[in-house]
Amino acid sequence: MTVIRLAALSLLLACGACARTLPVAQIAAAPKAETAAPHAKNVILFIGDGMGVSTVTAARIYDGQSQGETGEENLLSFEHFPNVALVKTYNTNQQVPDSAGTATAMNSGTKTRAGVIGIGPAAHRGDCAESLANHLPLIAEELADRGKAIGIVTTTRITHATPAAVYAHTPERDWEADSDIPSDQRVAGCSDIAAQLVAFPFDVAMGGGSREFFGADHGGKRLDAAADLTAGWKEATGGHYVTSAAGLGAVPRDGKPVLGLFSPSHMTYMLDRSSGTSEPTLSVMTAEAIDRLSSEKNGYFLMVEGGRIDHGHHDGKAAYALSETQEFARAVKVAMDKVDPADTLVMVTADHSHVMTIAGYATRGNPILGLVMNNDERGDPTGTPALAADGFSYTTLGYQNGPGAVRGARSAPPTDPKAAQQSLVPTGDIFNGTLNLAETHGGEDVALYATGPGAEGVHGVIEQNRIHEIMLGAIGAAPATSSD
Ligand SMILES: [Mg+2]
Ligand SMILES: [Zn+2]
Known about the structure:
With about 475 residues, this protein is α/β, with parallel strands linked by helices.
């Protein structure tokens, strides 16, 4: 069974206020990873965006109940992994982090500011000139130089923060197409994330976000109406560009790279696919990526993101987050069925948490998305919804903040699976005069699950940037962090 050992606490400073003034080298100075031989040939990093511990627990119950079980006893695929650690997710300038800073920590080995990608904390967000002097080496760059194949798979736009941190350097995560970059910053020499992807030597890249690669003539948002970055990429690499699950299935296995962009923006939520879609699922993309990368004799580095877990939570709709987590766990299972556990390190983690909680004293097997139904004094189910002190029922899952915020007196919560759960604080932004409520990230630790060569280095409570060192150590490469 999995045991979380708490003995090896890192020597890193835990004080957030201190972190802001610390030089980069001290933050990056993690203890040496305990990753002895045998080395891994391949490394797969699965990131469930926003998949905090409460999300994993609720998704485990959701998954079990979707198979007719009570649910609590269920385990998601990656919960069978032998090694587990807790991961501290803060950014150098934020107590509760964002996905750009956290993904940069994992890909570069250096914690940095929120909002920046592949850029060290000395640069400010949105400052092109500063960013150019503070590029961080990325694990995909280092491993591509060593002859490893590189794969990137996500359900968000392929230019969104988490996948971008595999291949891009930018002081602003929102610079996904050239039209997103203010002209004064563009002339300073920064290129957009889509342009950086097509210049990167990847072997497989799949997700959404085609609009970032095309101009208006092709329904995209690039400055040049005729722009088509995929055409230039095909010409330069001889690779295959596909836009549907059917197209992906038909691509020859000829060793040429594959770029799959299956939707203009993010890919469709699993819950909204009932009417059918031409988009592949995360597990289908993962299977295809591994099949293609496995033929590379030098091995591969693959990052797979369940990117819309986070979006379901921001919408305050747990059913979306849980069904995305369920598909993410399926993708891990698909990977485990395909890889050789003796030569592949598989790591599963989240970049940060969310403010969803599992509350009340619901009876065993109570529907995880439903109203709390308690037990009676004798410990048997009452069979009726419990009532709060205001006389109304309440759901097991709720949020500390976001779209479900109750204003004035509370009423009975909706139980439509596509409805938002009730919350307390109406967090959000006013954008173009419209109030957009959004639930926020959570700041507590996330879990890291690992199996395969190098997984023995995964235990205790670690800083998030150490994930980079564990992966490089497993592959037998010396960490090239910015502390060098
Ligand atoms: Mg993400
Ligand atoms: Zn988020």
